[in-house]
Amino acid sequence: MRILILSQWCQPEPFFKGIPFAKALQARGHEVEILTGFPNYPNGKIYPGYKVRLFHREVIDSIPVNRVALYPSHNHSGFHRILNYMSFAVSAALIGPLLVKKPDVIYAYNLITLDWAAWLLKKIHGCPVVLDIQDLWPDSVIDSGMMRKSNLMHLLSFWCNNVYRRASHLTTLSPGFKNELVKRGVPKNNVSVIYNWCDETNINTSSSIPSKLNKLKKENPFIVMFAGTMGVMQGLDTVLDAAENLLKIEPQIKFVLVGGGIECERMEESATRRNLENVVFLERQPPEKINALFQMADVLLVHLKDIPLFQITIPSKIQAYMAAGKPILLGVKGDSADIVRESEAGVMFTPESPESMLDGILELYNMTETERKRMGLKGSQYYRENLSMNAGVKKFEKIFHELKK
Q1: What CATH number does domain 2-197+388-404 carry, 3.40.50.2000, 3.40.640.10, 3.90.220.20, 3.40.50.620?
Q2: Which CATH number is 201-386's, of 3.40.50.2000, 3.30.420.10, 3.40.50.300, 3.10.450.50?
Q3: Which of the 8 DSSP states describes residue 279?
Q4: Helix, strand, coil tally for the chain in percent (to 5)
């Protein structure tokens, strides 16, 4: 098959379904092309070596990548975020069809705003569209603070539900998302649950840890690590509150927060102001260094704000943490908790509760190293059998073939 991946994000941005997904499909005999924007996520700044222009073609690891203009932004401003999404949507719809070859199937990643480009390409080439739902709109728009509830939101909800219903097929990341889509009028047999996977190549890569952490490593502390985007939805004030309490109880426990995002600067300022000597911040690291960081940790932390939408969300870092074979400290309810509980890969705590997080950390801290290692091994086994790229790509390929018939 000739498969077109339509996504606003792609490498060198930290995106697990860009080039890795394309390469996995290519390895199975398919011709894959990508239509995307200019890299600016997660900080909203264009990456070195790129500048926004009408379009740009390149080849990354043998995969043709077509980039179209967008407005780079990823800050607190709802207006700028919407402009970021809409600018790519318009460019992809108007310029994209002139750049890409005729596909047999279009795989569109997540954003409801990609509907214009996907619909136009579908009409031009007569091919099916598989829409991969990672965020439910308009719920995620409201929860992110980009827009407030209003009459406009009712109109957006009507449009989103129509987009979901007219896609050839929907894939989504959790049973909870599927149930919600069915409630919105999507036929049950038009929705498939395909769990996200992680960047497996870099999870298995060995490299040195950043020099900033060398001193910390020599102190041999018990490390609780968060790695990923530091945004509003991650609710990382809870981490700082727990760190403040633990500094008085067990100073041997250290927090390492790795990544970038719109909350990063504020979090660092808050930790400095509160004299949290047990919290270390590290800028976003290249993918090839992530496994070295994970192996340095004793526990890997996942936390999201306690809102209903996140009960049916499975953060992609859960898969990365499982694949790394480390115990997970999870502050997310619902489907995510079900996976960690079923796999016996970690300890759960109540999201946005510093006291509950503290209890979970101490529970893991007081375990033997053998007990924590057993948790990590169970997680990695569960990942291989249920969440891996190999398992996911096979499911996507089956859907693509069925739609092409």
Answers
A1: 3.40.50.2000
A2: 3.40.50.2000
A3: E
A4: 50, 15, 35
CA distance 170 to 135: 12
Q: Could you tell me where the DSSP H helices lie in 28-150?
A: 78-94, 96-99, 115-125, 139-143
What's the DSSP call for residue 54? S
Instruction: Report the half-sphere exposure of 41 (CA within 13 A, side-chain side).
Output: 19
Q: Are 20 and 316 in contact (CB under 8 A)?
A: no
**Per-residue confidence of the chain (405 residues) as pLDDT tens digits?**
999 999 999 999 988 899 999 999 999 999 999 999 999 998 889 999 999 999 999 999 999 999 999 999 876 677 788 899 999 999 999 999 999 999 999 999 988 899 999 999 999 999 999 999 988 876 655 555 555 556 667 777 888 888 898 899 999 999 999 999 999 899 999 999 999 998 787 777 777 777 778 778 778 899 999 999 999 999 999 999 999 999 989 999 999 999 988 999 999 999 999 999 999 999 988 878 888 899 999 999 999 999 888 999 898 899 999 999 999 999 999 999 999 999 999 999 999 999 999 999 999 999 999 999 999 999 999 999 999 999 999 999 999 999 987
Tell me the torsion sign for CA atoms 47, 103, 30, 384.
Answer: positive
Is-cis flag, bond preceding 12, omega within 30?
yes
The region, left, alpha or beta by phi > 0 then psi within -120 to 50, assigned to residue 356 is alpha
Kind and range of the H or E run holding 379? helix 369-382
Q: Sheet containing 63-68: which strands, arranged edge to edge? A: 55-60, 63-68, 31-37, 2-6, 105-109, 129-133, 169-172, 191-193
Tokens of 39: 């890299």
CA separation for the pair 214, 278 (Å, rounded): 15
Q: Which residue spans of the chain are classified as CATH 3.40.50.2000?
A: 2-197+388-404, 201-386
User: Is 395 exposed, middle or buried (CB count within 10 Å of its CB: 0-12, 13-18, 19+)?
Assistant: middle
Asked whether the CA dihedral 348, 321, 393, 134 is positive or negative, the reply is positive
From first CA to last CA, the distance across the chain in angstroms is: 11
R_g (Cα) of the chain, nearest Å: 21
Closest CA to 112 of 56, 80, 157, 65: 157
